[in-house]
UniProtKB/TrEMBL annotation:
Keyword vocabulary terms for this entry: Heme, Iron, Metal-binding, Signal
Name this protein carries in UniProt: Cytochrome c domain-containing protein
Coiled coil stretches, renumbered: none
InterPro entries: Cyt_c-like_dom, Cyt_c-like_dom_sf, Cytochrome_c-type_DH
Range of residues in the leader sequence: 1-20
Pfam families, per the entry: Cytochrom_C
Domain Cytochrome c span(s) in chain numbering: 56-143
Stored PANTHER family: ALCOHOL DEHYDROGENASE CYTOCHROME C SUBUNIT (PTHR35008:SF8), BLL4482 PROTEIN-RELATED (PTHR35008)
Length: 180
């Protein structure tokens, strides 16, 4: 199922249906190759599985954030045209919760995964693994979760203790595999 979804997604990005047979009724499309699918199969899981090699520091992330992220998220992650990334600790149980990386997100690997896939907005997937670790480190620092001298890599990122890690519950539906 996952392979078919990725093939369909890849086809949509290219502007043609990836799952259609070339000899289909419209004569459009072709099956996605394993290499094409692998290029989009970049999931980083909470336990760190799927994280690529690389390393990035808070200091490196500060300059990358200023150049590539601050225009949308504010100089210190306070928000702007796009959502705030920092702040909001202690606000989830209030009438006006501020859902940020530091107040709401349960896993630091989710931040890495999202930045890697979708950011910066004008050039998704343009950051290297090291740059993605650096930006993630800086955003975690802005939330008080990493000291200024910290660096992140595939071993250290999953160990970052997010404040809301226990704030989510497992999906109770019997047809959903455990851990999803």
């Amino acid at each position: 199922m996952r392979r078919e979804f990725l093939a369909l997604l890849f086809g949509l990005v290219l502007g043609r249906p990836a799952l259609a047979e070339p000899a289909g009724p419209l004569g459009l499309g072709h099956p996605a190759s394993p290499e094409q699918i692998a290029a989009w199969d970049i999931e980083a899981r909470p336990d760190g599985q799927g994280l690529p090699p690389g390393r990035g520091s808070v200091r490196e992330g500060a300059s990358l954030f200023a150049a590539r992220c601050a225009g949308c998220h504010g100089a210190r992650g306070e928000g702007g045209p796009a959502d705030a990334l920092a702040g909001g600790q202690g606000s989830l149980a209030t009438a006006k919760p501020l859902r940020t990386v530091g107040s709401f997100w349960p896993y630091a690997t989710t931040l890495f995964d999202y930045v890697r896939r979708a950011m910066p907005f004008d050039a998704p997937q343009s950051l290297s693994a090291g740059e993605t670790y650096a930006v993630s480190a800086y955003v975690l620092h802005l939330n008080g979760l990493l000291p200024e001298e910290a660096s992140l890599d595939a071993a250290s990122l999953p160990k970052v203790a997010m404040p809301n890690r226990g704030g989510f519950t497992a999906d109770p539906r019997p047809d959903v595999p455990a851990g999803r």
